[in-house]
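Quick look at the format.
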Amino acid sequence: MSQQAWHGHILWYHARTHTHTSSQAVPVASRKAVSKDLCVYLRKSGPTAQEHFLIEHEETWHLRAERLEEPGNHASMESLYQLLGDGSEVSYISQCNPREQLTLCYILATSMLYLYPSSWFSTEWTSDMVHFNRRSRTSTSATLTHPYVSIHLQSGSTSSINPSDRHRTHSHPAILALGIMFLEIASGSRFQRTRKGTPTEQCNEDNYRAWQDFKILERKDRHGRTKQTPSGLREAIRACLKLEPPASFPSNQLAEEGPIRHYILSCIVYPLARELRDGYKVNLSDLQKKTVPETSRTRIGNSCDPSISRQSTASIGNAPSVNSDGT
């Protein structure tokens, strides 16, 4: 699904992006190179059609449009930010059961596992970028297991790992931002991001305040509050806020793509998967069947293989949407 902004509002359109390793998968005559942003194609077909695109060998191709059976079922979208509270009232997210919260965190984490670092992470993901649909305009509940991420795609560099900054207290702001979202989901309350100062100062201030909030969450759990935060979610939050590879970790050089993706898999994704599987008896294969197309489905293993590739994790979680700016 993609979106476009129109006079301050967001209009949602359907699109599906395919990936193939073989150039013979789609004949050249059946595709056309995309020379402009994707929203040009979405505007031409309108909300009653679904456009198909192909990404192959770092190039994007337009394939075709097909008729939608239910074009209006994504008309009502809400952001995670809207579903969170400000601390003065009970929010929608705080009323969700731990299994739903874990599932949402798992999908976001596995999406990051596949996409980080890349141009999908030109900016950190925040709660106002994650959207859900209500199935219908009269529905009162959002579908947490089908999140959509609104992002700005940038051409050029494909890596989103920031240059080393010895003054920054967190070497991967995108992972810090993921941990802050997990913290928001666990607490049900919004985290007010720092807006003043330099990017380094903002990152350090957010890192400090998020860690304090996390310690408060741990204390509440220790004192036996009614709704306990699942241990796997606490473990994932800690791993996001404080990058500490275990002693058995093959590399401490988390500035490189291979080690940081292994860290995301083994220290963030796996605790969530283990909690869903062992604590809530969720079949991860069944979960993937509900969230990804049949043609791109793959099973996430229980092992933490350091050689895990983007291709092997492509179907884990929902693919983020393309922002209308298409930059």
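Next, a different chain entirely:
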Amino acid sequence: MWFRALILHDRGEAPFYQNFWARADHLGAALDEIGRAADGLGLAGATIVQADPVPQLPDVEMEGREDLRWDKVRFAFAPDGSSTGFVLPPGVVRSATGKDVELHAGFRQVEGNPVTRVECAVSAERLIRDHEHLLRTFEPFVVFWYELQDDWEEAGERELYVNEALDRAEPIVRHLESVPDLGWRNGHVTLTAFARAGATNVSLTDHKTLRVTTTEPALAERARDAFHLLGYRRDDQLPMVSEGIHHWHHRPTSSLGRAALIARLLELGFKKWKPGG
């Protein structure tokens, strides 16, 4: 399958956008190949801002090779000194279709009865560090789990794999550091640590946001304080990529498919768990 990606290169005095196309088995593999190609063209630090599957290559002048092409035309724009936009973390990428909503870092609170949700949009370079900070804020935990989304490989089932030995921030982070492409960079999984007080879930979602859900107002306040301490501003109208913005989830080339990931988690001591089971 062919995939198209729009890259932004904004380092230097003449920023520009450029289209790339790659043929690969899945979106993440295509994006990895495009990233390497951009580096090879001297575009180190370029950002992939949009991506989509395409039925065929367009009729435009291209360069490249059999499975990788790039547009000969670069779309330059005049820099105005402002930021060129919020860069989503690895695992999720915006589509060129749908609403053109500006995303930015920050957090919001959604009140519920009885569950309150505090969720933070985090940029790519902050994700891992801020996830660790949040885990340390709420430890100890009862259990840690991977939630495999039901639309990944059209499985039609949301699956949870749990590990009770991962009950504090340090072993959780150590585990994730050992398999970064299976968790942190995999847009098909949500990673959750569960604390008994307030039935609190501390999650890095499949949309690569940091989210705390809890029934205890004091723990919702703790989450707000943690995000404030990290430098994020509260905005309860903050748009999230998960809501009404067309996007795709992806995983790195070096990651595992669904069945292989399940097998690896079982090897690592995780067990399948069904809510209510």
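The mean pLDDT is 94.

See the schema section for token definitions.
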